Sequence to fold (344 residues):
Amino acid sequence: SKFVTIKAHIVGQPSESDFEVREHLVPLSVSPGSNDVVVKNLYLSVDPYQINRVKEHSASQSAISFAFRLAPGDRIDAYGVGRVVASANPGFEKDDVVVGLLHWSEYSVVGGESMLSKVDSKEFPLSYHASVLGLSGFTAYAGFHCVCKPKKGEKVFVSAASGSVGSVFGQYAKLHGCYVVGCAGSQKKVDLLKGKLGFDDAFNYKTESSDLKSALKRYFPEGIDVYFDNVGAEMLEAAVANMNTNGRVAVCGVISEYTNAQKRAAPDFLDIIYKRITLQGFLAGDYLQQYFPEFFSVTSDLLRNGKICALEDVSPGLESVPSAFCGLFRGDNVGKKLVRVAHE
Ligand code: NDP
Fold:
Protein backbone atom coordinates (compact mmCIF):
# COMPACT_ATOMS: atom_id res chain seq x y z
CA SER A 1 0.00 0.00 0.00
CA LYS A 2 1.08 3.59 -0.54
CA PHE A 3 2.48 6.19 1.85
CA VAL A 4 3.92 9.69 1.47
CA THR A 5 7.39 10.56 2.75
CA ILE A 6 10.07 13.22 2.28
CA LYS A 7 13.01 12.73 -0.09
CA ALA A 8 15.28 14.85 2.11
CA HIS A 9 14.85 17.29 4.99
CA ILE A 10 13.09 20.38 3.68
CA VAL A 11 14.84 23.74 3.51
CA GLY A 12 12.67 26.89 3.38
CA GLN A 13 9.26 26.78 1.76
CA PRO A 14 8.10 23.20 1.08
CA SER A 15 7.38 22.22 -2.51
CA GLU A 16 5.70 19.18 -4.00
CA SER A 17 9.05 17.90 -5.29
CA ASP A 18 10.28 17.48 -1.69
CA PHE A 19 7.91 14.52 -1.31
CA GLU A 20 7.43 11.12 -2.88
CA VAL A 21 4.85 8.36 -2.73
CA ARG A 22 6.33 4.98 -1.80
CA GLU A 23 4.91 1.47 -1.46
CA HIS A 24 5.22 -0.76 1.57
CA LEU A 25 3.58 -3.91 2.82
CA VAL A 26 0.85 -3.45 5.41
CA PRO A 27 -0.56 -6.66 6.91
CA LEU A 28 -4.35 -6.48 6.67
CA SER A 29 -4.72 -8.96 9.52
CA VAL A 30 -3.47 -8.76 13.11
CA SER A 31 -1.81 -11.28 15.37
CA PRO A 32 -3.85 -12.01 18.51
CA GLY A 33 -2.42 -10.40 21.62
CA SER A 34 -0.61 -7.68 19.69
CA ASN A 35 -3.17 -4.96 20.57
CA ASP A 36 -2.78 -3.62 17.02
CA VAL A 37 -5.56 -2.02 15.02
CA VAL A 38 -5.36 -1.89 11.22
CA VAL A 39 -7.10 1.18 9.85
CA LYS A 40 -8.09 2.03 6.28
CA ASN A 41 -7.55 5.77 6.17
CA LEU A 42 -10.44 7.88 4.87
CA TYR A 43 -9.65 11.52 5.67
CA LEU A 44 -6.15 12.71 6.50
CA SER A 45 -5.22 16.05 7.94
CA VAL A 46 -2.37 18.20 6.68
CA ASP A 47 -1.14 20.55 9.40
CA PRO A 48 1.36 23.41 9.46
CA TYR A 49 3.25 21.95 12.47
CA GLN A 50 4.26 18.92 10.39
CA ILE A 51 6.87 21.07 8.64
CA ASN A 52 8.70 21.22 11.96
CA ARG A 53 9.04 17.43 11.89
CA VAL A 54 10.41 17.20 8.35
CA LYS A 55 12.50 20.34 7.88
CA GLU A 56 16.23 20.90 8.23
CA HIS A 57 16.76 22.20 11.77
CA SER A 58 19.10 24.92 12.87
CA ALA A 59 20.91 24.53 16.20
CA SER A 60 18.81 27.29 17.75
CA GLN A 61 15.58 25.31 17.47
CA SER A 62 16.35 23.27 20.54
CA ALA A 63 12.84 23.26 22.01
CA ILE A 64 11.79 20.84 19.31
CA SER A 65 12.99 17.48 20.55
CA PHE A 66 15.06 15.18 18.41
CA ALA A 67 12.45 12.41 18.73
CA PHE A 68 9.89 14.71 17.15
CA ARG A 69 11.86 14.87 13.90
CA LEU A 70 11.35 12.47 11.01
CA ALA A 71 13.90 11.16 8.52
CA PRO A 72 13.55 10.74 4.75
CA GLY A 73 11.72 7.49 4.08
CA ASP A 74 9.83 7.59 7.41
CA ARG A 75 6.07 7.42 7.40
CA ILE A 76 4.67 10.77 8.48
CA ASP A 77 2.21 10.71 11.37
CA ALA A 78 -0.99 12.60 10.67
CA TYR A 79 -4.28 13.04 12.41
CA GLY A 80 -7.20 11.53 10.54
CA VAL A 81 -10.37 9.49 10.33
CA GLY A 82 -10.45 5.88 9.20
CA ARG A 83 -12.32 2.59 9.29
CA VAL A 84 -11.05 -0.43 11.21
CA VAL A 85 -10.15 -3.32 8.92
CA ALA A 86 -8.85 -5.70 11.59
CA SER A 87 -8.29 -5.41 15.33
CA ALA A 88 -6.51 -7.40 18.00
CA ASN A 89 -7.57 -4.76 20.50
CA PRO A 90 -10.75 -5.53 22.46
CA GLY A 91 -11.73 -1.85 22.31
CA PHE A 92 -12.21 -1.86 18.54
CA GLU A 93 -13.83 -4.09 15.98
CA LYS A 94 -13.97 -4.33 12.21
CA ASP A 95 -15.89 -1.44 10.59
CA ASP A 96 -15.63 0.88 13.60
CA VAL A 97 -14.96 4.45 12.49
CA VAL A 98 -12.03 5.88 14.43
CA VAL A 99 -10.18 9.15 14.74
CA GLY A 100 -6.62 9.66 15.94
CA LEU A 101 -3.01 9.69 14.96
CA LEU A 102 -2.67 7.78 11.66
CA HIS A 103 -0.16 8.43 8.86
CA TRP A 104 -0.08 9.99 5.41
CA SER A 105 -0.81 6.55 3.97
CA GLU A 106 -3.60 4.36 2.66
CA TYR A 107 -3.51 2.09 5.71
CA SER A 108 -2.15 2.54 9.23
CA VAL A 109 -1.36 0.00 11.90
CA VAL A 110 -1.93 1.68 15.25
CA GLY A 111 -1.05 0.31 18.66
CA GLY A 112 -4.32 0.45 20.53
CA GLU A 113 -6.66 2.81 22.26
CA SER A 114 -4.12 5.38 23.40
CA MET A 115 -3.91 6.68 19.85
CA LEU A 116 -7.46 6.15 18.61
CA SER A 117 -11.02 6.86 19.63
CA LYS A 118 -14.28 5.67 18.14
CA VAL A 119 -16.63 8.18 16.58
CA ASP A 120 -20.34 8.12 15.97
CA SER A 121 -20.44 7.91 12.19
CA LYS A 122 -24.09 8.85 11.80
CA GLU A 123 -24.78 12.42 12.81
CA PHE A 124 -22.07 14.51 11.14
CA PRO A 125 -20.00 14.05 7.98
CA LEU A 126 -16.98 11.89 8.90
CA SER A 127 -14.60 14.64 7.81
CA TYR A 128 -15.87 16.87 10.65
CA HIS A 129 -14.03 14.61 13.10
CA ALA A 130 -10.78 15.76 11.51
CA SER A 131 -11.85 19.41 11.30
CA VAL A 132 -14.37 21.38 13.32
CA LEU A 133 -15.07 18.48 15.74
CA GLY A 134 -11.46 17.32 15.75
CA LEU A 135 -8.12 18.76 16.86
CA SER A 136 -8.47 21.99 14.85
CA GLY A 137 -11.78 22.89 16.41
CA PHE A 138 -10.45 21.79 19.77
CA THR A 139 -7.38 24.01 19.45
CA ALA A 140 -9.68 27.00 18.92
CA TYR A 141 -11.80 25.93 21.90
CA ALA A 142 -8.85 25.46 24.26
CA GLY A 143 -7.29 28.71 23.05
CA PHE A 144 -10.55 30.52 23.65
CA HIS A 145 -11.69 29.09 26.98
CA CYS A 146 -8.43 28.10 28.65
CA VAL A 147 -5.97 30.71 27.38
CA CYS A 148 -7.60 33.95 26.15
CA LYS A 149 -10.83 33.82 28.20
CA PRO A 150 -12.35 36.87 26.48
CA LYS A 151 -15.17 38.77 28.10
CA LYS A 152 -18.29 39.88 26.24
CA GLY A 153 -17.62 43.10 24.34
CA GLU A 154 -13.83 42.71 24.29
CA LYS A 155 -11.97 43.48 21.07
CA VAL A 156 -10.50 40.34 19.55
CA PHE A 157 -8.03 40.02 16.69
CA VAL A 158 -7.35 36.71 14.89
CA SER A 159 -4.68 36.04 12.25
CA ALA A 160 -4.91 33.29 9.59
CA ALA A 161 -8.57 33.88 10.33
CA SER A 162 -10.01 31.95 7.38
CA GLY A 163 -7.89 28.91 8.24
CA SER A 164 -8.86 25.87 10.16
CA VAL A 165 -8.21 27.01 13.74
CA GLY A 166 -8.67 30.75 13.14
CA SER A 167 -12.11 30.42 11.53
CA VAL A 168 -13.44 28.44 14.49
CA PHE A 169 -11.82 30.73 17.07
CA GLY A 170 -13.35 33.80 15.43
CA GLN A 171 -16.79 32.21 15.41
CA TYR A 172 -16.57 31.27 19.10
CA ALA A 173 -15.57 34.86 19.85
CA LYS A 174 -18.52 36.27 17.88
CA LEU A 175 -20.96 33.89 19.61
CA HIS A 176 -19.54 35.09 22.94
CA GLY A 177 -20.36 38.70 22.08
CA CYS A 178 -16.85 39.96 21.30
CA TYR A 179 -15.94 42.46 18.59
CA VAL A 180 -13.92 40.34 16.15
CA VAL A 181 -11.57 41.35 13.34
CA GLY A 182 -9.61 38.80 11.32
CA CYS A 183 -6.83 39.04 8.79
CA ALA A 184 -6.20 36.73 5.86
CA GLY A 185 -4.22 36.64 2.64
CA SER A 186 -6.75 37.43 -0.10
CA GLN A 187 -9.85 39.52 -0.81
CA LYS A 188 -11.86 36.33 -1.29
CA LYS A 189 -10.98 35.25 2.24
CA VAL A 190 -11.73 38.71 3.63
CA ASP A 191 -15.20 38.57 2.02
CA LEU A 192 -15.80 35.15 3.53
CA LEU A 193 -14.87 36.38 7.01
CA LYS A 194 -17.16 39.41 6.80
CA GLY A 195 -19.95 37.51 5.05
CA LYS A 196 -20.49 33.84 5.84
CA LEU A 197 -18.52 33.82 9.10
CA GLY A 198 -20.01 37.03 10.50
CA PHE A 199 -16.79 38.72 11.65
CA ASP A 200 -17.23 42.42 12.43
CA ASP A 201 -14.40 43.31 10.08
CA ALA A 202 -11.49 41.76 8.21
CA PHE A 203 -8.51 42.83 6.12
CA ASN A 204 -5.94 41.45 3.70
CA TYR A 205 -2.59 41.57 5.52
CA LYS A 206 -0.71 41.36 2.21
CA THR A 207 -2.05 44.70 0.97
CA GLU A 208 -1.29 46.27 4.40
CA SER A 209 2.19 44.77 4.76
CA SER A 210 4.02 48.11 4.47
CA ASP A 211 2.58 49.27 7.81
CA LEU A 212 0.73 46.62 9.82
CA LYS A 213 0.82 48.74 13.00
CA SER A 214 -1.18 51.55 11.37
CA ALA A 215 -3.55 49.05 9.77
CA LEU A 216 -4.35 47.54 13.17
CA LYS A 217 -4.76 51.04 14.61
CA ARG A 218 -7.42 51.69 11.95
CA TYR A 219 -9.26 48.43 12.64
CA PHE A 220 -8.95 48.79 16.43
CA PRO A 221 -9.14 52.53 17.24
CA GLU A 222 -9.82 51.54 20.88
CA GLY A 223 -7.05 48.94 20.98
CA ILE A 224 -6.97 45.13 21.03
CA ASP A 225 -7.88 43.18 24.19
CA VAL A 226 -7.15 39.69 22.88
CA TYR A 227 -4.93 38.58 20.01
CA PHE A 228 -5.09 34.95 18.85
CA ASP A 229 -1.84 34.55 16.95
CA ASN A 230 -1.45 31.92 14.25
CA VAL A 231 1.34 33.57 12.28
CA GLY A 232 4.00 35.24 14.48
CA ALA A 233 6.68 37.66 13.17
CA GLU A 234 5.61 41.17 12.05
CA MET A 235 1.92 40.60 12.80
CA LEU A 236 2.70 39.66 16.40
CA GLU A 237 4.85 42.79 16.76
CA ALA A 238 2.09 44.99 15.28
CA ALA A 239 -0.55 43.43 17.51
CA VAL A 240 1.53 43.96 20.68
CA ALA A 241 1.95 47.61 19.67
CA ASN A 242 -1.86 47.92 19.54
CA MET A 243 -2.76 45.91 22.65
CA ASN A 244 -4.66 47.51 25.51
CA THR A 245 -3.53 47.42 29.14
CA ASN A 246 -3.95 43.88 30.52
CA GLY A 247 -4.28 42.51 26.97
CA ARG A 248 -3.77 38.80 26.34
CA VAL A 249 -1.93 37.25 23.42
CA ALA A 250 -2.40 33.52 22.84
CA VAL A 251 0.46 32.26 20.70
CA CYS A 252 -1.17 29.31 18.97
CA GLY A 253 1.24 29.08 16.05
CA VAL A 254 3.82 31.08 14.12
CA ILE A 255 3.40 29.72 10.60
CA SER A 256 5.32 32.57 8.94
CA GLU A 257 8.41 31.57 10.97
CA TYR A 258 8.27 27.79 10.38
CA THR A 259 9.76 28.02 6.91
CA ASN A 260 12.05 30.99 7.47
CA ALA A 261 14.75 30.54 10.10
CA GLN A 262 15.66 34.26 9.83
CA LYS A 263 12.17 35.42 10.74
CA ARG A 264 11.55 35.95 14.45
CA ALA A 265 9.00 38.10 16.20
CA ALA A 266 10.66 40.85 18.22
CA PRO A 267 7.77 42.52 20.06
CA ASP A 268 8.50 45.63 22.08
CA PHE A 269 9.05 44.32 25.61
CA LEU A 270 8.66 47.75 27.19
CA ASP A 271 5.16 47.74 25.70
CA ILE A 272 4.59 44.30 27.18
CA ILE A 273 5.74 45.46 30.62
CA TYR A 274 3.99 48.83 30.81
CA LYS A 275 0.74 47.50 29.35
CA ARG A 276 0.92 44.33 31.55
CA ILE A 277 0.36 42.17 28.49
CA THR A 278 0.19 38.40 28.97
CA LEU A 279 1.78 36.45 26.15
CA GLN A 280 1.05 32.76 26.45
CA GLY A 281 2.03 29.91 24.19
CA PHE A 282 -0.06 26.77 24.46
CA LEU A 283 -0.41 23.24 23.13
CA ALA A 284 -3.96 22.06 22.58
CA GLY A 285 -2.94 18.51 23.51
CA ASP A 286 -2.39 19.58 27.13
CA TYR A 287 -6.09 20.33 27.49
CA LEU A 288 -7.52 17.34 25.62
CA GLN A 289 -8.24 15.02 28.49
CA GLN A 290 -10.01 17.61 30.58
CA TYR A 291 -11.86 19.59 27.92
CA PHE A 292 -12.47 17.42 24.84
CA PRO A 293 -15.86 16.01 25.93
CA GLU A 294 -17.14 19.51 26.81
CA PHE A 295 -15.80 20.92 23.51
CA PHE A 296 -17.39 18.11 21.52
CA SER A 297 -20.79 18.52 23.10
CA VAL A 298 -20.82 22.34 22.86
CA THR A 299 -19.58 22.39 19.26
CA SER A 300 -21.93 19.60 18.15
CA ASP A 301 -24.84 21.64 19.50
CA LEU A 302 -23.63 24.76 17.68
CA LEU A 303 -23.44 22.74 14.44
CA ARG A 304 -26.89 21.22 14.97
CA ASN A 305 -28.38 24.67 15.50
CA GLY A 306 -26.58 26.19 12.54
CA LYS A 307 -24.71 28.61 14.82
CA ILE A 308 -21.25 27.67 13.59
CA CYS A 309 -20.05 27.07 10.08
CA ALA A 310 -17.63 24.21 9.28
CA LEU A 311 -15.16 25.30 6.63
CA GLU A 312 -13.45 22.41 4.88
CA ASP A 313 -11.22 22.22 1.84
CA VAL A 314 -10.86 18.62 0.66
CA SER A 315 -8.52 17.24 -2.02
CA PRO A 316 -8.97 13.75 -3.43
CA GLY A 317 -6.41 10.93 -3.30
CA LEU A 318 -3.27 10.21 -1.27
CA GLU A 319 -1.19 11.64 -4.14
CA SER A 320 -2.63 15.08 -3.36
CA VAL A 321 -1.09 15.14 0.15
CA PRO A 322 2.10 16.99 -0.93
CA SER A 323 0.21 19.75 -2.78
CA ALA A 324 -2.36 20.02 0.01
CA PHE A 325 0.43 20.37 2.57
CA CYS A 326 2.57 22.82 0.57
CA GLY A 327 -0.57 24.85 -0.15
CA LEU A 328 -0.90 25.65 3.57
CA PHE A 329 2.26 27.76 3.30
CA ARG A 330 1.00 29.52 0.15
CA GLY A 331 -2.44 30.22 1.61
CA ASP A 332 -4.18 27.97 -0.94
CA ASN A 333 -6.58 26.52 1.61
CA VAL A 334 -9.83 28.00 2.86
CA GLY A 335 -10.72 26.38 6.16
CA LYS A 336 -9.51 22.97 7.26
CA LYS A 337 -7.37 21.29 4.60
CA LEU A 338 -8.05 17.56 4.36
CA VAL A 339 -7.22 14.81 1.91
CA ARG A 340 -9.86 12.19 1.17
CA VAL A 341 -7.82 9.03 0.75
CA ALA A 342 -10.70 6.61 0.26
CA HIS A 343 -14.48 6.71 -0.02
CA GLU A 344 -16.46 6.05 3.11
P1 NDP B 1 -4.65 27.02 8.48
O1 NDP B 1 -5.85 26.29 8.07
O2 NDP B 1 -4.81 28.36 9.12
O3 NDP B 1 -3.68 27.10 7.23
C1 NDP B 1 -2.55 27.90 7.26
C2 NDP B 1 -2.87 29.34 6.80
O4 NDP B 1 -1.85 30.19 7.28
C3 NDP B 1 -2.86 29.52 5.31
O5 NDP B 1 -4.07 29.22 4.71
C4 NDP B 1 -2.46 30.98 5.14
O6 NDP B 1 -3.63 31.78 5.06
C5 NDP B 1 -1.73 31.30 6.44
N1 NDP B 1 -0.31 31.54 6.16
C6 NDP B 1 0.56 30.72 5.51
N2 NDP B 1 1.78 31.27 5.46
C7 NDP B 1 1.68 32.48 6.06
C8 NDP B 1 2.61 33.54 6.29
N3 NDP B 1 3.88 33.47 5.91
N4 NDP B 1 2.15 34.63 6.94
C9 NDP B 1 0.87 34.73 7.34
N5 NDP B 1 -0.05 33.76 7.14
C10 NDP B 1 0.35 32.66 6.51
O7 NDP B 1 -3.80 26.13 9.49
P2 NDP B 1 -4.26 25.65 10.94
O8 NDP B 1 -5.53 26.31 11.30
O9 NDP B 1 -4.17 24.19 10.99
O10 NDP B 1 -3.10 26.23 11.86
C11 NDP B 1 -3.06 27.61 12.19
C12 NDP B 1 -1.93 27.84 13.19
O11 NDP B 1 -2.22 27.15 14.40
C13 NDP B 1 -0.58 27.31 12.71
O12 NDP B 1 0.42 28.20 13.10
C14 NDP B 1 -0.46 26.00 13.47
O13 NDP B 1 0.86 25.58 13.62
C15 NDP B 1 -1.12 26.34 14.78
N6 NDP B 1 -1.63 25.21 15.55
C16 NDP B 1 -1.29 25.15 16.87
C17 NDP B 1 -1.76 24.18 17.70
C18 NDP B 1 -1.40 24.21 19.14
O14 NDP B 1 -1.71 23.26 19.87
N7 NDP B 1 -0.76 25.27 19.62
C19 NDP B 1 -2.64 23.10 17.18
C20 NDP B 1 -3.01 23.28 15.77
C21 NDP B 1 -2.51 24.30 15.02
P3 NDP B 1 -3.59 33.26 4.44
O15 NDP B 1 -4.16 33.18 3.07
O16 NDP B 1 -4.43 34.03 5.39
O17 NDP B 1 -2.15 33.71 4.41
Remarks:
- Residues 47-49, 136, 139, 160, 162-166, 184-186, 189, 230-231, 252-253, 255-256, 282-284, 328-329, 331, 333, 337 surround NDP (CB under 6 Å).
